Amino acid sequence: MAIDLRSDTVTKPSDAMRAAMAAAPVGDDVYGDDPTVNSLEERVAAMFGHEAGLFTPTGSLANQLAIRTLVKPGEELLVETRSHIVRAELGAAATFSGITTRTWPTADGSLRAEDPLAIAHENAGPYLVSTTAIAVENTHNFGGGTVQPLSEIEKLSSAAHARGIAMHLDGARIWNAHIASGVSFAEYGKHFDTISVCLSKGLGAPIGSVMLSNKSRVAEARIWRKRYGAGMRQVGIIAAAGHYALENNIARLAQDHARAKKIATALHGLDSSLIDPVKVETNIVGLELSKIGITAAALTSQCKEAGLWISALGPHYARLVTHLDFDDNQCDEAIAILTKILKSALVAK
Ligand SMILES: *Cc1c(COP(=O)(O)O)cnc(C)c1O
User: Fold this and answer.
1) Residue-range domains of the chain with CATH
2) pLDDT, tens digit, for every residue of 240-262?
3) What are the pocket residues of ligand 1 if the criterion is a CB atom closer than 6 Å to any ligand atom?
């Protein structure tokens, strides 16, 4: 069977997770009657020290509901150039909420508080766009699974709030950040006005994200979720997978990180321009191919023929993501396949 490292979204619910789903008490969540959904929302909110939570089918929707409670039409959200909110949500902030975005660039997604603060322009008056929120992605997906330094988050959050600018956390992989850094969820949570987290990435649930904030923003987001057509009925059957994931699949992320590091170290040994293993802090391995003599598309298709699925995210950038359906044997096999293909590319060069 093929080894699939295209994303940590490719995992299948385990038998134990499916059993938890089958046993879940349910009700009509549009009426607020689903006990499994209600307890999941309360549980995640409590983990991050927020007042309330809202279950959503996707992380994109959780992000979009969050930012629309912070930024009014015609106002501005600042985000890093390669963040999911601006690159992978199909312009939703503009399309649905009339939000304009402006970006600051980084080399590897790593947050430096001074970057957004330098371009922020709050209360900009009648001629210029006013900045009302800043979003931080942790870990940073297209940056290579980068863990954001807590000191920069603290600095940014306190300076932004002092200027009346709100803070949003795209925490699709905040679980990985927590495992890599040892920073608690509550510590991360206290620096942000709104948060989105995904249960369907590293934690292995089939579907589901949660948006967090205070009670009034969550109540507002609940109305917009229904308006967007994402009011769900006996969805405790899915929320139960989220409970199971939180109970069983957070600590084990350390294994995903170790396997990603092992792949990075092996490939660094082939050619140091491919990747710096020191920068592989979590479960994402981004390969820089510009000096290797193979395009990302060619590498991806040769890997696929050999039984390893990876992603080409740029002409010379390929990405591998480790996850809970990927074990040590598969890790050795993946390294062997990559080594063979990259070696012959290096010889041909
Ligand atoms: C996957 C992801 C999301 C949400 O994606 P959905 O596919 O909409 O669930 C949001 N932010 C980041 C950084 C992600 O990687």
Assistant:
1) 13-248 (3.40.640.10), 252-348 (3.90.1150.10)
2) 999 999 999 999 999 999 999 99
3) 58-60, 63, 84, 137, 141, 170, 172, 198, 201, 209
